[in-house]
TrEMBL record:
<dbReference type="InterPro" id="IPR039794">
    <property type="entry name" value="Gtb1-like"/>
</dbReference>
<feature type="domain" description="MRH">
    <location>
        <begin position="59"/>
        <end position="161"/>
    </location>
</feature>
<feature type="domain" description="DMAP1-binding">
    <location>
        <begin position="166"/>
        <end position="269"/>
    </location>
</feature>
<dbReference type="InterPro" id="IPR009011">
    <property type="entry name" value="Man6P_isomerase_rcpt-bd_dom_sf"/>
</dbReference>
<dbReference type="GO" id="GO:0005794">
    <property type="term" value="C:Golgi apparatus"/>
</dbReference>
<dbReference type="Pfam" id="PF07915">
    <property type="entry name" value="PRKCSH"/>
</dbReference>
<keyword id="KW-0732">Signal</keyword>
<dbReference type="InterPro" id="IPR044865">
    <property type="entry name" value="MRH_dom"/>
</dbReference>
<keyword id="KW-1015">Disulfide bond</keyword>
<feature type="region of interest" description="Disordered">
    <location>
        <begin position="254"/>
        <end position="290"/>
    </location>
</feature>
<dbReference type="InterPro" id="IPR012913">
    <property type="entry name" value="OS9-like_dom"/>
</dbReference>
<feature type="compositionally biased region" description="Basic and acidic residues">
    <location>
        <begin position="276"/>
        <end position="290"/>
    </location>
</feature>
<protein>
    <recommendedName>
        <fullName>N-acetylglucosamine-1-phosphate transferase subunit gamma</fullName>
    </recommendedName>
</protein>
<dbReference type="InterPro" id="IPR010506">
    <property type="entry name" value="DMAP1-bd"/>
</dbReference>
Length: 290
């Protein structure tokens, strides 16, 4: 005898009336919960970026239901799709994770949510389009091409004509770089492709585009040779100084150049060497060989 399975209900299967050798109870947990714990994201969302007034959307989620599907859009986080069905294999997955902005002619034209669940040989991805409205809500979801979704998000945050300009969101340093790139293009110093590459770099530095630069962890810088970071290093440096003094004395003696060697209050083993000037100022003679 089998009992029906419903949302968050544990199904109890029993063969008590079918097996004469004894009662056997089999417990099977069947849950159709669409909790986020079942979803396995492939990547971490990019940091919050773009227009400052959009940052208030971080941490919020908006739900829209079409037919048997429920869509949940969490700006700067992800987009998920949940099939509202009691089928045992009802779909629940990620349509995209926040990655970067789309920008055209100094204007933010959309948000790209990429690296969603696998869909054949590619991953699902979604472009979020903004439309002016009196309130913020997820208005429409479509799939214009296989595995690529389009989401319309209505919000009063885009009603001002300057609300989606890119330039004001940049730091003064990046704004200056953009100004210089514009001037160079105007003067014909760079090609259109070169200009676009410069803009791409500026947008990546601003966190508006996902950077493709490979970050290489450099080895730790060796301590400066003049810094004694251990007794062993100190001893090595002292021996090198002694060898250098010995070489200089030998060279001076070889060329019959007199010098004074006086012991001072310096640590034992260190010698102070004073060379007597043998040539007019400016004429270094044999001293160039030292």
């Amino acid at each position: 005898m089998r009992k029906a399975c419903f949302h968050h209900v544990v199904c109890h299967l029993t063969s008590e009336h079918q097996n004469r050798r004894g009662a056997k109870h089999i417990w099977v947990e069947q849950s159709l919960s669409f909790s986020g714990s079942r979803l396995q994201p492939k990547v971490t969302p990019s940091p919050v970026s773009g227009p400052a007034h959009f940052h208030q959307l971080a941490g919020k989620c908006f739900i829209h239901t079409e037919s048997t599907y429920k869509y949940e859009f969490c700006p700067f986080h992800n987009i998920t799709q949940h099939e509202q069905s009691f089928r045992w294999n009802a779909y629940s997955g990620i349509l995209g994770i926040w990655q970067e902005w789309e920008m055209v002619n100094n204007t933010f034209t959309g948000m790209w949510m990429r690296d969603g669940d696998a869909c054949g040989t590619r991953n699902r991805e979604t472009k979020v389009i903004f439309v002016c409205s009196a309130s913020s809500k997820l208005a429409q979801v479509s799939e214009p091409s296989t595995c690529v979704y389009s989401l319309t998000f209505e919000t009063p945050l885009v009603c001002h004509p300057h609300s989606l300009l890119v330039y004001p969101t940049l730091s003064e340093t990046l704004q200056k770089e953009w100004d210089e790139a514009e001037q160079a293009r105007y003067e014909g110093l760079i090609t259109e492709q070169g200009y676009n590459n410069l803009l791409k770099g500026i947008f990546e530095d601003a966190g508006l585009l996902k950077s493709e630069k490979v970050k290489i962890k450099l080895p730790e810088v060796v301590a400066d040779s003049g810094t004694h970071n251990s007794l062993h290093k100190c001893t090595e440096d002292l021996e090198k100084q002694r060898e250098e003094v010995k070489r200089l004395r030998s060279l001076l003696t070889q060329h019959n150049i007199p010098f004074d060697s006086e012991q001072t209050h310096e640590p034992k083993g260190q010698t102070t060497t004073t060379v007597k000037e043998q040539h007019p100022r400016g004429d270094h003679g044999l001293l160039d060989q030292l």
